[in-house]
Write a structure and sequence with these properties.
The chain is built from eleven helices and 15 strands. By secondary structure, the chain is an alpha+beta fold. The strands form three sheets. Strands 9, 10, 11, 12, 13, 14 and 15 form a seven-stranded mixed beta sheet that branches. Strands 1-6-7-8-3-4 form a six-stranded mixed beta sheet. A two-stranded antiparallel ribbon has the order 2-5. Helix 1 packs antiparallel against helix 6, helix 7 runs antiparallel to helix 8 and helix 9 packs across helix 10. The two termini are 50 Å apart.
């Protein structure tokens, strides 16, 4: 008798590497917080727009000063006596700096560059009063400046060639010649500067986020008459500010903020219901099932998304499969114990009788009885060996390699040589390749033919047909067939009607296990004469064409 040693290697359970990982809820909260704060963060990007507003304000002051200077120059040229003392002669413009007949003045101030001076110095008493001629001109031109200021909100002051204010709402008669931009203008050069703004009223709270509310643009445009500086048009204006509009529309801004917050909350709730909640429920179900709670194998209360529904269904299918497998193992173990117990009990009883015969009373066991008991021991040993071999074959069938392919024509030809006592006839699509190795198809067919022989069959008919990606092989015999009472149990392990003749009831179980491992199946058909089975195989999609 051969003994087989089996060494089992139990793999350690796979474990996730323990380290900190953010939870799904934390990631969702962080994302929603980022979305919620994005409008507030974007306020700081308004500084770029503020610089553009400074450029725009400077360009507007240049345009207004240029237009008013042209009107003032025309007025002074027509009213100033020829002997009126004028100011300096403007510096000559280099030809390279004056392409063509135009001399444009472009905005040059940059809030981001730091061109910010202190507040404008106060006016000072003039060293000498303004020429009466310029005083009259100032009174004559003041209505023009006032009307322009009321529309454009630009502050204008008209200065004489010495920098003394001759027209404006304030500081008339005082000198601004000590101010940097005015000093440049009386020399005939245009000058624009940024200065800190002085306001009588404190700015609204939101203005503290912006520099645009604390600055003012000043421009000094020289007025040239008869080739000399006849005066300076001094203009100033505070740039427009986006925060001012936000503060003025604070009710609408608050409503918009509340809408963003509400929308963020709704997104968070939707995310929680669609993703976070199903994940937590699935984790709880996994833990419960892992602890043996079979009542947890039910659909989730909330699937959230189609992907989670498919994931939950796959999880339930896996859990059901594992439970069915566990039940099968438990039942199988009980059947194995029962099948092994009978021959072992018989062997034990016979061995005890033989032992007692050797050490017992003087009446000895006859030779015939002794041979009968020894024959029983040998018979039961053979049965144990057969059961053990069948168990090994069943284990191999369930983990059989699924690679390879073969043709039924070669398999049927080999089977015909191995079973000469059977009249085997095969027809149909035998040349179609099926996804199973030649060795495994031989095992399947051998078990079926062994069963047919043991049930008195002499003829085997095999018919193969294909349908889409499957090949069906119908095998029928003329043996004793399967009784109606046994039809539901013939694929059960250890079920046999030939137990006294050495049957183990494992043949069809091995066939079904091997077919299942290869993606096939076996079905018992109704048959009036003998037994008939349909074996279904997956095909490779290749045809052998001669």
């Amino acid at each position: 008798m051969r003994s087989f040693g089996v060494t089992e290697q139990v793999a350690a359970p796979a474990r996730v590497t323990p380290k900190w990982r953010p939870s799904l809820s934390l990631i969702v909260i962080m994302m929603l917080t980022a979305v919620l704060t994005l409008p507030l963060v974007s306020l700081f990007f308004f500084r770029i727009y503020e610089n553009q507003l400074v450029h725009q304000t400077e360009a507007e002051l240049i345009a207004q000063s240029a237009a008013l200077s042209a009107v003032i120059e025309s007025d002074l040229d027509g009213h100033l006596p020829p002997d009126t003392a004028l100011g300096a002669r403007p510096p000559a413009v280099a030809p390279a700096e004056q392409p063509g007949p135009f001399t444009p003045i472009l905005p040059s101030l940059d809030l981001a560059r730091g061109d910010l001076l202190g507040r404008r110095p106060d006016a000072m008493p003039a060293l000498q009063p303004a020429n009466p001629v310029f005083k009259l001109a100032g009174e004559r031109l003041f209505p023009l400046l006032e009307r322009t200021q009321s529309i454009t909100l630009t502050g204008f002051r008209l200065l004489d060639p010495d920098g003394v204010v001759i027209a404006g709402r304030a500081e008339v008669g005082l000198s601004l010649a000590h101010i940097e931009e005015v000093r440049e203008a009386v020399q005939g050069r245009f000058k624009a500067v940024l200065r800190q703004r002085v306001s009588k009223n404190p700015p609204p709270p939101l203005y503290s986020l912006s520099r645009g509310t604390s600055i003012r643009v000043f421009t000094a445009m020289p007025i040239i008459v008869r080739g000399h500086v006849a005066g300076v048009l001094y203009a100033s204006r505070t740039p427009s500010n986006v925060f001012r509009h936000l503060y003025e529309e604070r009710g609408k801004v608050a409503l918009a903020g509340a809408s963003v917050a509400l929308l963020t909350i709704l997104i968070g709730l939707a995310f929680h219901r669609a993703i976070t909640r199903p994940v937590h429920e699935l984790i709880a179900r996994t833990t419960a099932i892992g602890q043996g709670d079979r009542s947890a194998i039910v659909p989730l209360k909330h699937h959230g998304t189609a992907e989670f529904a498919r994931l939950a269904q796959s999880f339930l299918d896996m859990a059901n499969s594992l439970n069915n497998r566990s039940d099968f193992i438990a039942t199988f173990a009980a059947h194995v114990s029962h099948e092994l117990k009978s021959p072992l009990t018989s062997i034990e009883g016979a061995a005890e009788l033989l032992r007692d015969d050797m050490t017992g009373p003087a009446v000895a066991m006859s030779d015939d009885d002794r041979r009968r008991f020894l024959s029983n021991i040998i018979s039961d040993t053979h049965r144990l060996t057969a059961i053990t071999n069948r168990l090994r074959e069943l284990a191999r069938a369930e983990i059989a390699p699924t690679g390879g392919s073969t043709e039924l024509s070669s398999a049927m030809a080999d089977i015909q040589h191995r079973y000469p006592a059977l009249d085997i006839r095969a027809d149909g699509a035998l040349d179609r390749k099926i996804r199973i190795s030649a060795e495994n198809i031989h095992i399947i067919l051998s078990h079926l033919l062994d069963n047919a022989l043991h049930h008195g069959a002499t003829r085997i008919q095999a018919a193969a047909s294909t349908a889409s990606d499957r090949l069906d092989l119908v095998i029928s015999d003329n043996g004793g067939g399967v009784s109606p009472n046994n039809r539901a149990r013939i694929f059960d392990s250890f079920f046999t009607t030939r137990r006294d003749a050495g049957g183990t009831g494992m043949g069809l179980s091995i066939v079904r296990a091997m077919l299942t491992a290869h993606g096939g199946e076996i079905t018992l058909l109704d048959s009036a004469d003998g037994a008939a089975f349909t074996l279904s195989f997956p095909v490779t999609g290749e045809l052998d064409l001669d």
